[in-house]
Amino acid sequence: MIEVTDLTKRYGDHLAVDHLSFKVEKGQIYGFLGPNGAGKSTTMNIITGYLAASGGTVTIDGHDVQQEPEEAKKCVGYLPEMPPLYLDMTVEEYLRFAAELKKVSRAERMGQVEQVMEMTRITDMRGRLIKNLSKGYRQRVGLAQALLGSPEVLILDEPSVGLDPKQIIEIRDLIRELGKNHTIILSSHILSEVSAVCDHVMIISHGRLVASDSPEGLQRLMSGTGELKLTVKGSFEVLREAVDGMTGIQDLEQQSGAPEGCCNVRIRTEGDQDVREALFYLLAEKKLPILSMTLTEKSLEDIFLEVTGGAAEAEEPGGKLRRRRGKKSLKGQEES
């Protein structure tokens, strides 16, 4: 549906997008992630035709954005981070105006306005001035504008920024519903939102693609050393002796806070080996009952920090961002 090839964008001496290449398949929801300044919004603006590239090509449904801009733009509905709203218009006036700008025929115009208002659940707001709407409803109006003209592709830049938790859930559900009939590229700093909504995740850093896969595929790709947390009835010394030499276990570390007569341990496994079943039978044979066992998997946040090199925004509860120092980026990561 969308093919980006060797895309570059320079602002003076600053290289914002560095020979970026990827493909977007039809009927999927793509999450587009990266630290601030990584080139996400610049890439989106180039795809939608708002910015000209310094080099490379973007084709949408076979139409080159630079060579056939009008045909390419007809395929795309765009919701910028700050929706382009005219605050002194009513919702219906604005959408009719936007439909006219998008060259929707007069015969279809009102029908499309009604349809997108119903899809985004703003029909009851049709007569309200946009300046009197809440942030959540303004986002819905912006999304309704993006849907006018029946585009095959929706590009949504931070669609839930500034919304409260209830509004975030509503927008998330709406995006899932729209994903049944549209190809969607979604940029977001709320990593749990991307993990919950998207079929495929692309992560860029310093203008380059550093990871591209499904959320589950990224977890497998970045799994490396696994980790088990156990509470075992018995002493740590006896447990360590019991598992000494067991295949698949890299190291064993005692943790604090164990109940009396028990020990808490963290076991690091080699690669992606799953030793839980073998460990269960071994400790049962040694009369060391396992009271609890937890497999720790990497979250999308962990993967994001790993592949972007560490000094990136990480998500806190409630969708807020904090600066956090992460692991070094992986060398040799394949680019698409």
Keyword list:
four-stranded antiparallel beta sheet; alpha/beta; 336 residues; 11 helices; six-stranded mixed beta sheet; elongated
Spell out the blueprint of helices and strands:
Layout: E1 2-11, E2 14-24, E3 29-33, H1 40-47, E4 55-60, E5 63-64, H2 69-74, E6 76-79, H3 91-101, H4 106-119, H5 135-147, E7 153-157, H6 165-178, E8 183-187, H7 191-197, E9 200-205, E10 208-213, H8 215-221, E11 226-233, H9 236-243, E12 249-255, E13 262-269, H10 276-285, E14 290-296, H11 300-307, E15 312-315, E16 321-324
Parallel strand pairs: 3-8, 3-9, 6-7, 7-8
Antiparallel strand pairs: 1-2, 1-4, 4-5, 9-10, 11-13, 11-14, 12-13, 15-16
Helix pairs in contact: 3-4, 4-5
- The tally of strands reads 16
What is the radius of gyration? 25 Å
Beta content: 25-35%
Overall outline? elongated
**Mean pLDDT across all residues, rounded?**
84
Helical segment count: 11
Whole-Å distance between the termini?
A: 16 Å
Helical content, roughly? Answer: 25-40%
The computed structural class is: alpha/beta
Which strand order does the major sheet show?
6-7-8-3-9-10
Oligomer: single chain
Order of helices and strands: EEEHEEHEHHHEHEHEEHEHEEHEHEE
User: Which spans of ≥5 residues are poorly predicted at pLDDT below 50?
Assistant: 311-336
